[in-house]
Structures
1.
Amino acid sequence: MTVRTREVEYYDGDTRLVGFLAWDDAVAGSRPGVLVSHMWGGREPFVCDKARALAQMGYVGFALDMYGDARIGSGPDENARLMQPFLEDRALLQRRMLLALETIRSQPEVDDGQVAAIGFCFGGLCVLDLARTGAQLAGVVSFHGLLKPPGNTAGKRIMAKVLVLHGHDDPMVPVEDVVALETELTTAGADWQIHVYGHTMHAFTNPKANDPGFGTVYNPVADRRSWLAMQNFFQETFNPS
């Protein structure tokens, strides 16, 4: 097994976006592809490492770029400034996600009929919004993602299977948001699951998260359980019986 990587340029108008593709060159032919949507800090090494891990499983991982030029924020203040335009304009967010979906499908290593997406924190919201557009993809997985609906997708049918992995003690996502998402997904006809981890806060998959006052704390048990849940979800999603 040799995991290879390359950067892939794609564009939203004049905005240059730079994704990070990883695949195992020992696998013959095309195979399922998985988008990886980043946290508020941008296309950091964290998501590139997730793309590599997906490649080791036999998929093609593609860490997408929401901000342009693979820009990475310098800290919470800049991260918030980078993310805020997308929270205020969910149509922009959705357009960037759809462009990333088109881009991964165009890669020669990818089976364009078998594509899914995962996302972390802000990226979890992004992959849920991708599903909310009604896009044709196999499934989406949100890790400690924000859940509030965008307001422009009501009435659309969700075609992707949905797995949401959530910490019960996440101060950024109250229980009311979880219940509202259950109702939203059911109304949209989605095949959905929500796994809730007890005694678990926001950003539980990020080893650098260590700020209880802000609500972001790494939880190695929830990290391991959620990654296994994703693997089981993809085995079912990409290999339906």
2.
Amino acid sequence: MQLVPVSTLEAAPATLHTQGWALLTADTLLPWIGADAATAELLHASWNQLPPDPHLRDGGHYRYRRHDSYVLDVASGTLERMPHRAHWQPVIYNALHGGFERWFEPVAPVVAEHPVWQALIRQLGQLLARTKPVDRWFIEAHQFRVDTTGGIGRPTPEGAHRDGVDFVAVLMLERHLIKGGETRVFEADGPRGVRFTLNEPWSTLLLDDERVIHESTPIQPLGEHGWRDTLVLTFRQGGFQGPTSA
């Protein structure tokens, strides 16, 4: 397994610019968003109430999720939660689940209105605007639980991919009695890549979606029931993805 260097908040924009990805530790992230471990774990408890993903096209029943959308005014830091909307991706970015509207249950109000949740989205958006200056980010938030009830779970059933946005943030929240789930990040137009496993709760991988492709390998149980909890945030300029934006 590769030894993966971590970044500071100050260095993250330059690191994203030079290599297309950056990794933040929980010790870096949590104080920055005004959270301690206990507060973060209270927020993570909401992952126990995620409904099943009704749109899996591989026949599996291993994924649970909720979805929200936000608009961030970068200069003022104003974060607006948008009316609930479908998640949509073009087939070019998601051959398995692209090309149709996917409706998921919204993020619970107790989560969406939590100051740590809002600080996380707002401050990551402002940090990413230091790499690519924009006035506004159109942000989608995805709470994921992938479990091993059927013997195997697939965090990225679509395989190695881009998301059709500007930046992606992948936050590891918990690995419970599993093996696998290796993260792989590769240049979209080159041979170089890295492979590592996100283990630490609230460790955060930032990706320049225009420059790298990413995937996570399947997970298998180490006990009777295992799961992998993540939060994925996508940041896009110009508007949300939809059939008219393809």
